[in-house]
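[Q] Does anyone have a clean structure-token version of this?
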Amino acid sequence: MSIETEIPASRLQLGLMWSRMKKASRLDQQGVLELKTDTTSTGQAVAVLVLAALAYGIGYTAQTQFQRHDLSIYGIIVGSLANTVTVCFAAFVWSATAFLVGTKLFQGKTGYWELARPLFFASSPFLLFLLITIPVPPILVQGNVPVYWFQGTIAVAAVVWLFLSQIFVLKQVMGLNLRRTVLTVGVGLLILAFIGLQFGTG
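[A] Here you go.
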């Protein structure tokens, strides 16, 4: 009896998560604001982030090995997991940085998880990186230099879509105008770049 009631509930949760992912990806204002206030969606937001990071990890690792002509199941698994952890860590660092910059410097009005939930759902475009695993051969140009046009197009589209989604979420959740939103992103990226340089030269 418990199994019969459990399966529809899980399907309902998956359907709800998918609907929220689509709204965040489509830059739906109402959907983003719902995520801001719905504390029950925190677990789903983290799950979406992990799925997006895993998609990136699989796509990036597979493409790297494909270019090196060194495909292996073990290498894909290890590389995918490492990249997944890296992307998840970067997402938490970015959300915390954007929160601090937006609220402390530009008078944004939000709590951390009120911002993090929509930001994590807005990472959904990175699911496109799974398409990179499709073995589309490169175009050989002058000097037989391979140009991976398909993989490059997918990667650029995913990154641009992600960037626009993040800006949209920051603007809606913090209640900032476009200028302050862009400044929040710019200052946040500069801070992260500076920290990265310090660790890189340390």
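[Q] Thanks! Anything notable?
[A] The longest strand covers residues 139-141.
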